[in-house]
Amino acid sequence: METTASNQAAETSFDAEAVRAEFPALTPGPGERGCAFLDNAATTQKPRAVLDALERAYVESYGAIGRGVYRWSAEATQHYEQARARVARFLGGAADEVVFVRGTTEAINLVAASWGGSRLRPGDEILVSGLEHHSNLVPWQLAAEATGARLAVAPIDERGEIELGEIERRLAAGKVRLVAVAHVSNALGTVVPVAEIATLAHAAGARLLVDGAQSVPHLPVDVAALGCDFFAFSGHKVYGPSGIGALWARRELLEAMPPWQGGGGMIREVGFERTTFADPPQRFEAGTPAGPEARALATALDWLERLGREAVAAHEAALLELARQRLAEVPGVRLVGSARRRASVVSFVLDGAHAHDVGTVLDAAGVAVRVGHHCAQPVMARFGVPATVRASFAAYSTAAEVEALARAVLRARALLVR
Ligand code: PMP
């Protein structure tokens, strides 16, 4: 018998319904209609374990991190540093190479301001790709403006893949100091071969920053195997709380980087004439840290690893293929992006209907998707569309949600396309 994507989704031993039951937001109350939450590339819902960890952190041992001698403060500090070690283990790095930040955006701004601001010279190039989220573009434009460096772009092809030949060609000119690419595209789901790009970049004497916002929730990640120099991700996209994320960077790079924000917690000694700074990672964590959020992020990573990152990836891959198949069956639907390796995300347009109108009809049918440019306007320009409808999957997504999506798109077509 031919194996369809639907069969594959059904056959996997992964129990998405059991996973789902751990998410209060996804469990409708009596008489309530459930929501097919398919906007997981934007943010994820939180399992009970993470909500409990957050509450425990605020109730059982809440105090200022690194500042107090009293018990709550000491315990909060210990949890915070344990969370740092947890993030390091999750990424395959060392604890003193992990800087807590608010999220991917802040991590990239940190590198652009500190590493970029101190290392880039007029005429240097920062190489990005045509796939990038605005968070991995605008900070580099600002750094270029501040230093006299310039932005170079490796374009994407009609599948939505980065042209590696273009990366090689740009690197060959010898001006690129840093390559900054997404591991997974939030707009198209393309998985980028970052290990290959790391080899190319290093051979040309350039550093590699990986925007891991969309890979950490969906793929096993090991910074040593990837060979990158900087790696950024956001807690809220990986079942953790908002307002916390991490930058991993090679120790020798962090040690040579100047502070980017000044304040409490990042100094060794302060005088009016002269201030000396703490070692990394504290040098880059000015101000009161988000202790409970870091602790709950560690719980989210524990939770995801207990499920199994490979198992989650396989489950999501089956759903993604089912979704691509079902959507392609709807007359007038055009899938945007057909990369050979993809994760979690399907983007599409419905001919004759605006993406925002499609999103509204889907919402009325209880299907939550993202519509718009997904903070990746250059990707939209490459495909000649102002916006797409984007569905994105998580560990708790189900084949029934995919079928609800396809039905709702058919309904949108009936209502919107004349
Ligand atoms: N990069 C990518 C690829 C993303 O998808 C996002 C979030 N949409 C970001 C960066 C920014 O993440 P945050 O808003 O959590 O800082």
Descriptive overview:
- The protein has 2 domains: 5-43 and 308-416, Aspartate Aminotransferase, domain 1 (Alpha-Beta Complex); 51-305, Aspartate Aminotransferase, domain 2 (3-Layer(aba) Sandwich), CATH 3.40.640.
- The protein is built from 15 helices and 15 strands.
- The protein has helices spanning 5-11, 16-20, 48-59, 71-91, 104-119, 138-147, 164-172, 194-203, 223-226, 251-256, 291-307, 309-328, 355-364, 377-383, 399-416; strands spanning 36-37, 98-101, 125-129, 150-154, 176-182, 207-211, 230-234, 245-249, 267-270, 275-277, 333-336, 345-350, 367-368, 370-372, 388-392.
- Helix 6 (138-147) links the parallel strand 3 and strand 4.
- The relative contact order is 0.17.
- Mean pLDDT is 95; it is low at 1-11.
- The protein binds 4'-deoxy-4'-aminopyridoxal-5'-phosphate.
- 4'-deoxy-4'-aminopyridoxal-5'-phosphate is lined by residues 41-42, 103-105, 133, 135-136, 182, 186, 211, 213-214, 234, 375.
- 4'-deoxy-4'-aminopyridoxal-5'-phosphate binds at residues 41-42, 103-105, 133, 135-136, 182, 186, 211, 213-214, 234, 375.
Key descriptive features of the protein:
single chain, 418 residues, alpha/beta, Aspartate Aminotransferase, domain 1, Aspartate Aminotransferase, domain 2, 2 domains, 4-stranded antiparallel sheet, 15 helices, globular, disordered N terminus, binds 4'-deoxy-4'-aminopyridoxal-5'-phosphate
